[in-house]
Write a structure and sequence with these properties.
The protein is an alpha+beta fold. The chain has 3 helices and 6 strands.
Length: about 160
């Protein structure tokens, strides 16, 4: 990871944490846009990436990740209007593409993005927090049984 005067972005574990405004877009909305007009959908994708790029440039100018990372997303949303999986997949795609296009990531492929996790909090406004964790993928994730009502309702939680 190459850092230029960005020690204020690191937490106690040495991971980089960034937080920026993000207006959530649903994967269903993107699919609908693509079906109605491919060119229009492409223009809206570029506009979303431009807005994300402006936000990222304010925070992580000069920060680049040369090693593989694990990324933890916390999505802060005003309303519970969209399905979390749709917000996460569409948002993550736009953010990773922007990070790659701006030169913060060498690639957004499996060689450089070793994994990711999502968490959601509601009522605090629309923004996203990302934590970039190096070497997390080297640790084995263990799973703990949280709740088991019956064979169709089993809840596991990853713990380190």
């Amino acid at each position: 990871m190459k850092i230029k005067n960005k020690n204020n972005l690191r937490n106690n574990e040495g991971n980089i944490i960034i937080k920026f405004a993000y207006d959530p877009v649903s994967l269903n909305q993107i699919i609908k846009e693509s079906r109605s007009s491919y060119r229009g959908a492409n223009a809206r994708k570029k506009e979303r990436e431009h807005v994300i790029g402006v936000e990222l440039d304010k925070i992580i100018r000069g920060v680049g990740f040369e090693k593989p990372v694990y990324v933890k997303f916390i999505w802060f949303l005003k309303k519970m209007k969209c399905d979390p999986d749709n917000v996460a997949s569409a948002g993550m795609k736009n953010i990773f593409d922007t990070l790659k296009n701006k030169g913060h990531l060498i690639s957004d492929g499996a060689k450089y993005i070793k994994g990711f996790a999502h968490d959601f909090q509601y009522g605090d406004g629309n923004f996203v927090q990302m934590e970039f964790i190096e070497d997390n993928f080297k640790k084995k994730m263990t799973w703990e049984l949280v709740e088991c009502k019956d064979e169709n309702n089993i809840i596991w939680e990853g713990v380190n």
